[in-house]
Structures are given as C-alpha cells and as structure tokens.
User: Fold tRNA-specific 2-thiouridylase MnmA from Kitasatospora kifunensis.
Amino acid sequence: MTDFPGAPTGPSTGPRLRVLAAMSGGVDSAVAAARAAEAGHEVTGVHLALSANPQSFRTGARGCCTLEDSRDARRAADVIGIPFYVWDLAERFREDVIDDFVSEYAAGRTPNPCLRCNEKIKFAALLDKAIALGFDAVCTGHYARIVELPDGGRELHRAVDMAKDQSYVLGVLDAEQLAHSLFPLGDTTKEEIRIEAERRGLAVAKKPDSHDICFIADGDTQGFLAKHLGTATGDIVDESGAKVGEHDGAYGFTIGQRKGLRIGRPAPDGKPRYVLDISPVNNTVTVGPVEGLDVLGLTAIRPRWCGAVPAGDGRYTAQLRAHGEEVPVSAELLDGELRVRLDRPVRGIAPGQAVVLYDGSRVVGSATIAATERQSVTS
Assistant:
C-alpha cells in the first residue's frame, strides 16, 4: 500500500496503484485526485450521478450532484490529466439513502444520511464495483487520516484540521474497506487545499462547499418529508401527558428542538420547552424543560468496527453528532449491542444518530443509537 494517506503529501515510495477517484465537482475531491496522481498512481476520475433528475445548477452552496457539478468534475479531471467517467448510482442511492432517510424519520428517529451514503454508496457500491474492475483503491476528498501499522494493518484517525474533520461519518468503514481507501487530505487544512487548487489551475478553487442534505437542495427538510409522508395531525403533550398543542406530522420534529413547536400556552415556570420524545406509534410529540434532554447513557445497535472488535468494558471518548464535541465514556459490547455510559450528561441525543468511539485520534467504530437514558425521560 502507498504511504501517503495520513502522511505528508508527496511522491509515493510504495507500489503504483490503480486508483478510482470519486470526484463530486468540489475542490476537496479534485485536489485529492490530483494528489493521488502526483504520488505516481494510475488514477481514473468518476463522478457519481446520484439524482434521478439532476438540476442544471446548484443553489448557492446547497446540495450537490447537479449537472454543473458533473461538468466541474470533468474539467478538473482534464486539468489533472486523468480519464473521467460518470457512473449512474441514482437507483442505489434512492434505495439505500433517501428511502432509509424517510423511513427513519417515519419511525421517530433522526438519521445521518451522509454516514449512510459513505457506508452504502461510496465504500460499498462504488468500492465493490471498483474492485471488480481491477482497481486497488478508492480515493475521496474526506478529511481524515489512514495510518499504516508495522504489521500491515491500517487505522482510521482524525484529520489534522479539526474544523473539517470528517472521521465521524467514516466510522462505519470496516478494516477491509479501509484497506482499499485513500484520504489524501487528512494532513492539510481547508485553506491550504484552496491555495493548492488555485496553484494547480483547478477552476473549483473558490467554489463554495456544499452543505445541508444533498438531496434536499432547498434545505426544507420538513417540506421534503411532508411530500413523502403526507400530513398526520397529532398531539403535542407535556411530561404529564397534558395536551399543549397540535402538529401536522411527528416526523417534522427532532429531539432537542425548541423553535417552531406551535405550543398554545407557556409552561407553568415560564421557561422554554424542548422536544423530549417523538412517538410514531401514537403520533405524539412530548415537550418539556431543557434538563429533560440530559442523556446519561445509551444503547446502540449495528456496530461496525474500523479494526479489531473491542473486548470487555473499555474507556473511550465518543462523538454523538457530526460536529459535536467528544465526551469521555465507558463502553461495552453486550449481545451484539453497544452499551455506553457518559461521564457527564449530553443534551439532545436522538435515536437514529450515530455514536462513534475514539481512542485518542483513532476511530474505534460506530453504531446507531437505538435508545437513550435520561434523568427525567427515558426513550
């Protein structure tokens, strides 16, 4: 394997690899592909067409996968001097990411579609196809580092630029997938990447980053869900079960939400109320004081490990949101479920989100939160 993932950028001293570079049309993936080619690998660029009906242009920095993005990726490949193709994975993306997103919300959970895309599309569907075609690795513009071990194994670590670190959404990768992954940007800051892109003559050097959910280009998640799930009037209740308002669909709420609750009367203590629980069974949203959001422990399912499966009760730090802070925890794998105890309460953690365990900067693994333990409300 090459030595450059997680190491200073430069010519590779390892074997020459056949690399498939996933090129979104943004600056990060373009520079990642350029670095892989400069390191001496045989690189082919590919843009994933994930939308069944792509728009011609993106709206500001929202969304991605437009025809404009495809053209930007092609122009970047031309500048780098590598072959370029467009692969249609729209059907697979709809089934594994969009449909999963909708069904998770319908079940009262809060999913992370970027994490699911990495698991099911970029490092499953894409990687499987790449290996079948004779490629050695898939290269992406994620900010994370892969560290080579003396025994030939690999570890996934946080990026140098913590502000851009994306190891949280890569925690679903297993050891076999890591063995065929390249993340050339992990040792670099975003500002340095833009400067490098301009130096390389890449037109995307100043292109805005995409944000929000890529398949909801206008940012209206509630409107998107209403279109797919329809309206279903239900009650908003307080912790005692007393009705305090109505809603048009429980899917339109997330744990920890404060604004847009449309509660008819203030709380007895006059303090703001937050969404504490979402019950799809009776279409009820429970609200209460902010202290009711304090999570002390959680149970997570479908664990995926970036290396060896941890044995026994261990001490780690955990990240519970894509851009959340780390918290010290104790974690243990029992009967296929991950049981996590937090050293201090963390607010607003919802079923459906991912918990990612770290040992220092190393990613240990990821699991999907199924239930939380709170001080006043158990979900």
